[in-house]
Amino acid sequence: MKPAANHPVILLAGAALLWSTGGLAIKAVEWNALAIAATRSAIAAATVWFLIGRPRFTFSAVQIGGAVAYAATVTLFVAANKLTTAANAIFLQYTAPIYVAVLGAWFLREHPSRLDWSLIVVAVAGIGLFFVDELSFRGLWGNVCALASGVAFAALIVLLRSQKDASPIESVLLGNGLTALIGLPFVFGPIPSVKSCVGLLWLGIFQLGLAYVLYSQGIKHVKALESVLISTIEPVLNPIWVMLILGEVPSPWSLIGGTLVLLAATTRGVLTAQRNAPK
């Protein structure tokens, strides 16, 4: 796919839109967590390969590191969704902007501004308000997996960004292969239902495969922290899909929190688009 250098915000927002369907789709698949992670990653690997054509593997430290961070991110997130509530899983994963701010300053020399720190506070507070009626302390190990997924997601973003002058999508491709390999022993057993198979196809083709192709192109043109702040629209859209499909109406706290997150994401998106606009 040809990079859309003038539209990184659209690419990142498109990736977040597809990612946001993950919680609902994972809950709909009746299978164990590692089998789901392995199967959707195998499908995603085939999708990415089809979309990008011949990959360019260098097996550099950052490419392999990105693959490991990717495998940890997607596997832990699936486990979190199975072991705790979808709200806990997505909220705790989206503590990632805090880690990106620290890792990006250290590893990429991309130091956050005061505005960036302000937007982090607004976005994380907004996500917390969005799920204030649903967050719980039940599912301890699920919450641990979700927090660890946030750390892994932050590492992935930084490592993909560090490959901005190369081709970061290969880390995603290798990461999908690694995830599929890790979960392979858990795939054998009862065959999932037709409904579950449809969910797995959606997760592999769109929620992971296409989403990460878009994201890997967009992150070449924006800073790591900017990319994750724009992506905070994912946890807002997640319960919206639940409302549209299952009829669950968001609470007033959700509406306030969603507004704050969209404000933070839109502010960062507009400023990023202005900076990347042709002179």
Please describe what this structure looks like.
The chain has a domain at 20-120 and 135-221. 75% of the residues lie in helices and 0% in strands. The chain contains 13 helices and no strands. It has helices at residues 8-19, 22-28, 33-52, 61-83, 86-93, 96-108, 114-130, 140-161, 169-183, 194-218, 224-230, 233-246, 252-276. Helix 1 packs across helix 12, helix 4 packs across helix 9 (169-183) and helix 8 crosses helix 11. The longest helix has 25 residues, at 194-218. The protein is globular, with a radius of gyration of 18 Å. The chain starts with 7 loop residues before the first helix and ends with a helix.
Order of helices and strands: HHHHHHHHHHHHH
Query: Quick one: biggest sheet?
Result: none
Q: How much strand?
A: under 5%
Radius of gyration: 18 Å
Shape: globular
Class by helix and strand content?
mainly alpha
Brief characterization of the structure:
The chain has helices spanning 8-19, 22-28, 33-52, 61-83, 86-93, 96-108, 114-130, 140-161, 169-183, 194-218, 224-230, 233-246, 252-276. By secondary structure, it is mainly alpha-helical.
Which properties best describe this structure?
disordered N terminus, 279 residues, mainly alpha, globular, 13 helices
